[in-house]
Write a structure and sequence with these properties.
Helix content: 40-55%
Number of domains: 2
Distance between the termini: 19 Å
CATH topology of the largest domain: Rossmann fold
Largest sheet: 4 strands, parallel
Oligomer: single chain
Strand order of the largest sheet: 3-2-1-4
Number of strands: 4
Strand content: 5-15%
Structural class: alpha/beta
Radius of gyration: 18 Å
Order of helices and strands: EHHHHHEHEHHE
Shape: elongated
CATH superfamily of the largest domain: HAD superfamily/HAD-like
Length: 172
């Protein structure tokens, strides 16, 4: 019997930001001085993000997004400002739509639920407030100084008092 849940927030409770990221990649590709597709930009951005996030010093997800996009824009000759280009993504993180079935699922949930998210705490909190959502606990990458797949977030969530002697299950 499951007595608690760990829920990834973006992509599980609310919609992920894939469409926004694709739009940003398209804007960069259109403004690039070298021939490049939005798909190429998106793939390069993903690789650059992974490199920044895996760096020796922890950085917020917002910082990782801008730094990695700055690398890509420089590589393809796009004069766009990474902070301005990322602004729609940051706005989205604070106001994403709920995934279909989320309210129904949460209304029937009898076990405690903890959100685990790579997205910065202020953005998760804003999204939760926008939808009137409350969870037993929230653990973000900022809380543990590491991003998934590192297990630090899950360890912190499972070590919290809300778990006690319960068994939890993770949902992504």
């Amino acid at each position: 019997m499951i007595k608690g849940l760990l829920l990834d927030f973006y992509g599980t409770v609310v919609e992920d930001d894939d469409a926004i990221m694709a739009a940003i990649a398209e804007w960069v590709a259109v403004d690039a001085s070298t021939p490049v597709t939005a798909r190429d930009v998106g793939e390069a951005w993903g690789l650059a993000y992974e490199a920044v996030a895996a760096g020796p010093e922890f950085r917020s997800l917002r910082d990782c997004a801008m730094a990695s996009l700055a690398t890509v824009t420089a590589d393809v000759g796009c004069a766009g400002d990474p902070e301005s280009l990322c602004a729609p993504q940051f706005a989205y993180w604070q106001a994403p739509p709920l995934r279909r079935g989320t309210r129904d699922f949460l209304s029937r949930l009898t076990a405690p639920a903890c959100v685990v998210s790579d997205v910065d705490r202020m953005d998760v909190a804003a999204a939760m407030a926008r939808h009137g959502l409350a969870f037993t606990a929230v653990v973000t990458s900022e809380d543990v100084g590491a991003y998934k797949p590192d297990g630090a977030m899950f360890k912190r969530a499972l070590a919290a008092p809300w778990v006690g002697r319960r068994r939890g299950a993770a949902c992504r």
